Amino acid sequence: MSPTGRRRAAITAAALGVVVIAPSACGVEVDSGWPATTEVPVPAEVTGEPDHLLEIPPGASELPTLTVPVGTSVTWLNDPDSEEDHWFVSDGPGDIESATLQPGNSYSHRFDEPGTFEYFCRIHPELRGTVVVE
């Protein structure tokens, strides 16, 4: 798989909340009789990049205001090199509610209604952002 394909697969898996741990990565020898790698087809509707990827850099102090069309999925990705966790929730109307995003984790939300949606990080309340859906 190409590097771009691996990045897309990682983002898709993160957006779907999929975690894969290879037994060999845990120091466990497993002889299942199956090949070491298996290509699994992914349905077309979940392949590719999210509509909008917002990467949160280490030490972020503010987030940009995003303006997106109705039906857009926004994915927040906590930079893998960050030393901080984030937990985003709505600050008013809307149902933005991520789990705690450790470095390298992501959260996706689809905006199906027009409006202005403000959110903040419960861990770092000064870290705020806005999504305007038109």
Structure description:
The structure is a single chain. The chain has 134 residues and is mainly beta. It has 2 domains: 1-49, no CATH class; 50-134, Immunoglobulin-like (Sandwich). It is built from 1 helix and 7 strands; from the N terminus they run H-E-E-E-E-E-E-E. It has one helix at residues 3-16; strands spanning 52-56, 65-68, 72-78, 88-90, 106-111, 115-121, 128-133. The strands form 2 sheets. The protein has a 4-stranded mixed sheet, with no helix packed on it. A 3-stranded mixed sheet has the order 1-3-5, with helices on one face. It is globular and about 35 Å long.
Number of helices: 1
> How confident overall, as mean pLDDT?
75
- Spatially, the strands of the biggest sheet line up as 2-7-6-4
Q: What global shape is seen?
A: globular
The percentage of residues in β strands lies in: 25-35%
Number of strands: 7
Number of domains: 2
The level 1 CATH classification of the largest domain is: Mainly Beta
> What Rg, in angstroms, do the CA atoms define?
17 Å
Proportion of residues in helical segments: 10-25%
Flag low-confidence runs: 1-7, 18-25, 34-47
In the CATH classification, which architecture of the largest domain applies? Sandwich
Looking at CATH, the homologous superfamily of the largest domain is Cupredoxins -  blue copper proteins
SS-based class: mainly beta
Distance between the termini: 37 Å
CATH-defined fold name of the largest domain: Immunoglobulin-like
Instruction: Return the string of H and E elements.
Output: HEEEEEEE
Let me know the largest β-sheet.
4 strands, mixed
